[in-house]
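Entry 14. Ran structure prediction on the chain below.
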Amino acid sequence: MGFDKESIFSELLHNIEFRPYSISLADKLSIMVFSLGVSKKEGWMGSGEGYMASFIHVFRKERCTIVQKFVKNKSVVEIWNNIIKISQYEGNSPVDVWQKVGILEKYRGTQLFGLEHTYTQSVLQQSHIPKCQPFQWNNEELMNRLYEYHLKRRTIVEINWLQLFKQWESSGYIIEINTTLSNLYPKKYQFNDREMQAWSSMLKAAGCTNVTPFNSNISPVIIFILFIYWFIVIFLRINFGHDLWILRMIKKL
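Output, structure tokens:
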């Protein structure tokens, strides 16, 4: 099926913001993080409700699955034996709740939750970056968060940046971005690289996609000619076993 090819996996995972992953704690525990949530709550290291992680360990002489998560303002540890939940603990933080469990005392609760791992911190930081989808462009509070994070400190204040998204939405979601940006700014305004990178970052965070099919240095005509050439070559090889005719034609050009 081709699923052993890295290129196919990369294509399938494109635009998927999160996928479960496992991390190792002191080469003793394999912790699976299978969902994310973010918050600014003290002691939660950037995580929040929606974050869930689990690992397998012995509890009361039974091999159990230990599920860790955040529910509202509580850190929760559930202990399951097959499909039966045999115990549950709650605390104000991962450290607090693990002090109540009574096992694995040599580890901090934030370690057992997987929160101290560098990869977890990386994906949590990415999750804190404001994002939205086109159907949310009317949510001015959300759009302002995108503007504050991506663009405000990198462009002039006087522009009506929100108007771009309103025009975009009314025009059918496809626009020529350079012309549209030029209309927002004063005449003869010169964009710098940092400013354009900020706009690119904001547009991507707002769910926009670059649909330009060609690199600016490649002519679509050249692409078309190459396509026709290879189509004829493949056709001749399939039907006649060679491509001498096309080569002779090229030599005459």
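The beta strands are 21-25, 29-35, 52-59, 62-71, 74-81, 84-91. Will compare against last week's run tomorrow.
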